[in-house]
Amino acid sequence: MSILDVVNATSRTVNEKTKNMQEVANLKRKIVYERERIIEIFAEIGEKFYGMDPSNKDFSELRILCDDVNTRKRRIQKMLFALHNMKGFKICPQCKAEVNGKFKFCGTCGARIPEPEEDDFLKIDGLGFGTESMEK
């Protein structure tokens, strides 16, 4: 193996790590954007509710906004899953423990770890909706 082969191999490794770091940073930015948008939607819901005529029972505008929040929360869950996967682990939906990315069940509590394609995945409420799960 020549010195040129070693330099090329090292260069490829550095490029892969840089690309991975960029993907992680992009996912984190998208998650922050979705969270900020959810806060804005909550404010909009509050303003609309506050300004509503009490005799008016039509909440269709509020339902549309609530559906938007739910969609954004699902997006955040999928992005957090992808982010954790890049780092080689998953988060248990029951106990919030870190689980090796290859495992299908939590080693701490025994709960099944759903995949993003499954219906169970979208039923998980808040796979770390706070900022703490992004900082890992």
Explain the overall architecture.
With 136 residues, the protein is mainly α. It contains three helices and two strands; from the N terminus they run H-H-E-E-H. It has a two-stranded antiparallel ribbon with strand order 1-2. A hairpin with a 6-residue loop joins strand 1 and strand 2 (98-100). Helix 1 packs antiparallel against helix 2. Mean pLDDT is 82; it is low at 126-136.
Question: Helices, strands, pairings?
Answer:
Blueprint: H1 3-50, H2 60-86, E1 89-91, E2 98-100, H3 119-123
Antiparallel strand pairs: 1-2
Helix pairs in contact: 1-2
Question: What string gives the helices and strands in order?
Answer: HHEEH
How large a portion of the residues is in β-strands, by DSSP E? under 5%
Coarse shape = elongated
Strand order in the largest sheet:
1-2
- Percent range of helical residues: 55-70%
Mean pLDDT: 82
Number of helical segments with 4 or more residues: 3
> End-to-end distance, in Å?
38 Å
- Helix/sheet category: mainly alpha
Query: What is the C-alpha radius of gyration, as a whole number of Å?
Result: 21 Å
Q: Which spans have pLDDT < 50 for at least 5 consecutive residues?
A: 126-136
The major pleated sheet works out as:
2 strands, antiparallel
| Count of β-strands | 2
